[in-house]
Amino acid sequence: MSEPPFLYLDDAGYRSEPLRWAYALGACYNLYHEYPVDLPVDPETAGRRFRGQRDRAEGWLRRDWSIEDRAGLVAAMGWLGRDGHRRDHRALVRRYCALPGRGWHEREAMLAEHAREGNEAAQAQLWRMGAVGRDLLGCRAANFLAFDAARAAQLARNGYVLGFLSLDEVRAYLFDLAREVSASFASWPDYGRDFVVGRAFWAGAHEAEPWDPLMRRLDTEIDSPWRRILFGFPEDETSRGVTSADTRDGPCWTLETAPVAARADA
């Protein structure tokens, strides 16, 4: 894979600091897929560059997500906001950590037998079990939120590029996503490490390349959004109130942990 230069967020489209910070959540996924990190705000005046982004976004959504319209996109973004892979991965780690010695060996032997027969699901599960046993990548204490968050930010971006989502819908979704990430991690490198372990668990194999080099680029390159935008969600007067559910027909990121102030009258 080539190494495209970083393109910083267009000032015209991202004057709001909270939205700029929220959009940086998807930088690792954008870089992996060789998308520019910025996003033209006006499709009518962005010309040929924007049309190229539309073609790539359409192909990515269809190939990786089987998404062809707004309804499919909203459903996928809602799933990431509600559950994603993080819930299953957290439960899996807890379940393996709680297995007694005999139960561990019996399950490991069963998975190994199926893996030898070519069962890919068993091979992935066997890898995850061994990863928990060795605490590979610090998976026992992993949050598993970052992989879902990065993909959610990427879906929001592509949905806007294709005209499936309005900028207001993208902004509302990313605001809630960004607030949860800000409450869950201490820094961009902390977020990046959780992304890598989440991606590894999803794949059922630790693929060090190309993720480790990408994380280093995001941590060190001067034009990286992670270097130019401080970690930590900066609230402003336009921030939405915390929501635990949303009945609109647009995408919704359901906050798992609301701020104390928002729970005061619960």
Describe this structure in words.
The chain is an all-alpha fold and 266 residues long. 60% of the residues lie in helices and 0% in strands. Helix 1 crosses helix 9 (167-184) and helix 10 runs antiparallel to helix 11 (208-220). Mean pLDDT is 79; it is low at 1-15 and 258-266.
The share of residues in extended strands comes to under 5%
Low-confidence stretches: 1-15, 258-266
Radius of gyration from the alpha-carbon trace, in angstroms: 19 Å
Number of helices: 12
- Helix-strand pattern: HHHHHHHHHHHH
The major pleated sheet works out as:
none
Alpha carbon gap, first and last residue = 50 Å
Mean pLDDT: 79
Number of strands: 0
Helix content: 55-70%
> Given the C-alpha coordinates, what overall shape results?
globular
Secondary-structure class: mainly alpha
Domain DUF1266: 61-229
Pfam families: DUF1266
Organism: Methylobacterium indicum
InterPro entries: DUF1266
